[in-house]
Design goal:
This protein has about 230 residues and is an all-alpha fold. It is built from 9 helices and no strands. The longest helix has about 40 residues.
Length: about 230
């Protein structure tokens, strides 16, 4: 069981990643195509995204672990804490000043299983570089020096949580059918028109969590009477 000072921020970042405009937008598009057989292509897409990010997370965790061992305990060093402080502050600054204009969502050209798997890989490749909450969670888990038996299940659960909203949307669509279509149409329009603004909130909150963990690593608040435990 990971310590709470690791579990809480990682759980918070996983919840932030549920707001991904890409996966939610594509899910809404698939559900609104009017095609009855949407389960297989949709879940092929979601599984591909989850497996892609899980694999990326494992590679980063193993790579970071080897790097930190080579640097003789940098994971416990205040130096890394200052790096996270700078990174978190930069993410907060970017969230405040980033452009918030709408961005057109990528849509599948076809609903075949192979096409949706390809779209899942494309989503991972194109969005992976901006998956700042995920990178923040990996950084926190790495600095905690968790054993493989702990961080592998954490990564798996993280990625399951990340694709949970599209799964819930699918189940609601199956349950309510066409009665839900007008609401799904409104949600899709809102996601497409405000994806940049939503991304700004995600980056900003992720930056706060990374900054908070970096401050804790540096110990700069020790002796000031200020505690981060309540944040």
């Amino acid at each position: 069981m990971p310590p709470l000072d690791v579990l809480v921020p990682v759980a918070g970042l996983a919840l932030l990643d549920t707001l991904s405009p890409a996966t939610i937008g594509i899910t809404l598009y698939v559900l609104l195509t009017g095609t009855h057989a949407v389960a297989r292509p949709l879940f092929a897409y979601l599984a591909t995204v989850a497996v892609f990010y899980f694999t990326l997370g494992c590679v980063l965790m193993l790579g970071f672990g080897v790097l930190f061992q080579a640097l003789e305990g940098l994971a416990d060093s205040p130096v890394l804490g200052w790096v996270m402080v700078v990174l978190g502050a930069g993410m907060l600054g970017y969230a405040l000043f980033m452009p918030t204009g709408s961005r057109r969502q990528r849509r599948p050209a076809a609903l075949g299983t192979t096409a949706m798997i390809g779209l899942g890989v494309a989503t991972g490749l194109l969005e992976g570089g901006t998956a700042l909450p995920y990178f923040g969670a990996i950084g926190i888990m790495t600095t905690a020096d968790l054993p493989v038996a702990v961080w592998v299940p954490m990564l798996a659960v993280y990625n399951l949580v990340m694709v949970l909203p599209p799964i819930l949307l699918y189940l609601a669509h199956r349950l309510f059918g066409e009665r839900l279509r007008p609401r799904l149409e409104r949600w899709r329009t809102k996601v497409e028109s405000s994806s940049r603004e939503a991304m700004g909130w995600v980056i900003g909150i992720a930056g706060f969590l990374v900054l908070r963990h970096g401050v804790w690593l540096t110990g700069i608040l020790e002796g000031t009477g200020i505690s981060l435990s309540g944040l």
